[in-house]
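Write out the bound-state structure for 5-amino-5-deoxy-1-O-phosphono-D-mannitol.
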Amino acid sequence: MCGVIGFSGVTPCVTSIFNGLKRLEYRGYDSSGIAVMADQRISVVKSKGKLNQLEPLLASLPADACVGMGHTRWATHGAPSTENAHPHSDEGISIIHNGILENYKELKIKLLEEGVSFLSETDSEVVVHLLRAELRLVHDVRKALLNVIGKLEGAYALGVMTQHEPGVIYVVKNASPIVLGIGHNENFFASDVLALLPHTNRFIFPEDGELARIVPDGVEVWDFFGKKLDKEIVSLNQEEARADKGGYRHYMLKEIHEQPAVLANTIERLVDLEAGEVRGELTGLCKLDLAAVRKIHIVACGTAFYAGLMGRYQIESFARLPVDCELASEFRYRNPCLDRSTLVIAVTQSGETADTLACIKHAKKAGCQTFALCNVLYSSVPRESDVTLYMEAGPEIGVASTKAFTSMVLNFFLMSLELARLRGVRSPEGMERALEALRILPNQVSSLMSLEARISELAGELFESGHCLFLGRGHFYPVALEGALKLKEISYIHAEGYAAGELKHGPIALIDKNMPVIAIINTCQDFEKTLSNLEEIHAREGQLIVVGQDKDRRLEDLCRYMIPCPVSPEPALQALLNVIPLQMFAYFMALHRGTDVDQPRNLAKSVTVE
Ligand code: M6R
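---
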């Protein structure tokens, strides 16, 4: 969950490291630090808090340093503090770490018994002391590092700099993401490609169990047994993504507003509207052995899981295949029945979520076919999967996922249509309705942007509420879950998403005049049933806010506030439309409460530890 970056070159690197950390700050932002080497000496600055706290300290680093590493932290072991910030250093050794060392306690106890003193509460610091001890024995950094690695259990992407080999950075990868960048007279490493795009578009993607040595004129890679590897250099034609807010106050708001374009691009890329066909070959589904597939498991975390729930409805109704959708953190430990007849679909914006990645690895071992729906090129989940459909939503920087979610939903919709065709179960009327819905979708999403003022006004009335309930049925149940997640993660208001039919089984006890209830209701699915749930809430004086279609007078009589949405002929895309006002609602609630919208407390964009 931390971001790591390093440079070994012939020109000063402090500013580049700091700018790289800014691009990685979404991964963790409770403390940060930089270590550079000049004149065979390592200098370190560290600070608690966000990167702007570190910035004033940069002047104390040698301006001519051409080798260095930076780290932005999401605390796992030890509170966010300057002491616990990386790099951790001792006797001319400096290390940065992303991951969790599962056996650090026993290693630390042993080191303490040997008289070593620790400066931090982190798991990572053991690496510094282990390496120092090994270097006394073997006097060769690579060999010493390999010996240290032999003692470590858990997940680690490590950057290591020592005065024993000035100008050299070692990088180690095991179950945490790392990419190596290849430049001219300078080479790099980082947690992701995005951080290095201003410097290069040529990359090496190390596998787990590999170690690299980076110097200005080259990069060498070995496996953990010391065997030298010939790694492919991949050139990515990815345009350097704009990492600024484009005039918006927050990334989240910018990303909400990018949705019409992202969805229009997806439709243009994946659908031939004139021919009335999904461009099936671009989905990658035809590369699977679908004749063998009897069941689909969708695995994901957080918002991606809710998109997966929507995908389940879509695939089952169009392609008539049984689909389970499960939280990746549960699936991986449940010992599910898996074999070649099971297709496991991993949904992930970042492609680095530890639990989702573990599921794909587990599924592959069990003989399943694997498919990734992902937004980040060359990230870990696609690299582990048989086939990947990239969403091409562009970089999502705000921790609260918005455009990635709607993009996942749309991609699932198109995948369902293609699966239906490949399985020979597509109905012409169903396809016609789907195409009609797709044709009007981008304009409908654009029109939702005009709701901003109205939703901001609503948030102005509700932002002091301590709780909020979200309700929906069928396709709109995952919308309720997603609305609740968005609200809690950025406004810190306790929110729950419920299937409306579950109301009487418990949550109705919560309803009184102080409980805002946001109901997602549309005529295309279970309208009357949801309406009677809303009657029950009204009768108990709950404050009802309705998101959906506004054509029914009965709704007007019941609710205090109506957020009208355009009507789609497809329930799945109706759900997509309904979620956007909920993203805005969470955003404005957070704004009114003065919380940190883009970097909410305790969270990180990419959850690379379980
Ligand atoms: O990168 P992923 O899509 O795998 O991330 C999964 C979740 O961590 C993510 O969706 C998280 O729930 C978001 N912060 C929600 O807005």
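---
Residues 16 and 511 are 54 Å apart (CA to CA).
The pocket of 5-amino-5-deoxy-1-O-phosphono-D-mannitol is lined by residues 301-304, 348-350, 353, 356, 399-401, 485, 489, 606-607 (CB under 6 Å).
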